[in-house]
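dumping this here so i dont lose it again. seq + smiles for zinc ion
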Amino acid sequence: MDTKYRNAWVESYSNYNSRLKYKTFQNRSDAKSIIEVQYDSDKPGRYGRIVYRNTNSKYSTPFRTYLNTSNIHIRNSANVRRSTASHELGHALGLKELEDKSKPEHSVMYKHRDRYSVIRATSLDIIRIDKLY
Ligand SMILES: [Zn+2]
């Protein structure tokens, strides 16, 4: 994986790891989760996607997610990559989309957030995740 995409993922999960109370991402060679990039040319407007998340596992949460390298903003902006990685990992942790159109800056889970400025989980997102575990 190209360093610029890897950096977005690492920055995102490191940020979650330093702030969450009960859940961490672990970088292990035997991990069942897959974090990757894909050239999803059928959906050039798509930034990223979580394609699988196992909610039945008690102690670990296997998931598979990617950044879409056919999206020009993903290719060209480190902040858009960070915002998208943080959003997809938020799904991996159990968060759903938020529809709060009045305060999009309050959550990385808002679909229509400004991806150039809302680039990591907000305190609201962290509180919501901690409540799940
Ligand atoms: Zn989403």
